[in-house]
TrEMBL record:
The chain crosses the membrane at residues 12-32, 38-54. This is Zn-finger containing protein. Keywords: Membrane, Transmembrane, Transmembrane helix. The keyword Membrane applies. It comes from Merdimonas faecis. The keyword Transmembrane applies.
Length: 131
């Protein structure tokens, strides 16, 4: 069975970031439509899901790739913001992150060093904080 699916999908575009987003937004619209009985949301959800499957089974790989690249370009700043927040949360386990009182530069200090004098690498201001 797996081999048949692989043969069927050969030469087709498959799933990408835009396709995943379309399916998720379509499912959310479908759930919302179930609670609100909105015909517009039902139509929108089905249109999004059908378009996602159309993209997945499409043989026009160049056009689908261009659509995905457009989507990635438009969502770059949002994805970067969430990636930075995730990185900051992971670093909070091992480091303190302080802002320089003079220039507002973020400075990463390891935890567990006690009270230390911190020198800002940007403006050379010094301040004392607990690590």
């Amino acid at each position: 069975m797996k081999e048949k699916i692989m043969r069927f999908m050969y030469g087709r575009y498959g799933m990408d970031s835009l396709g995943k987003c379309l399916v998720i937004v379509g499912l959310i619209a479908m759930l919302t439509a179930g609670w609100t009985d909105s015909l517009v949301l039902v139509t929108l959800s089905w249109a999004l899901i059908i378009y996602a499957y159309f993209r997945m089974f499409s043989r026009n790989i160049y056009k689908r790739s261009a659509e995905n690249q457009w989507y990635l370009d438009k969502t770059y700043k949002l994805r970067l913001f969430f990636a930075r927040q995730k990185n900051m949360m992971q670093q909070r386990k091992t480091h303190h992150i302080y802002k320089c009182p003079v220039c507002k530069q973020k400075i990463r200090i390891p935890r567990g060093k006690g009270r230390i004098e911190i020198r800002c690498p940007k403006c050379n201001a010094t301040f004392i904080k607990k690590s």
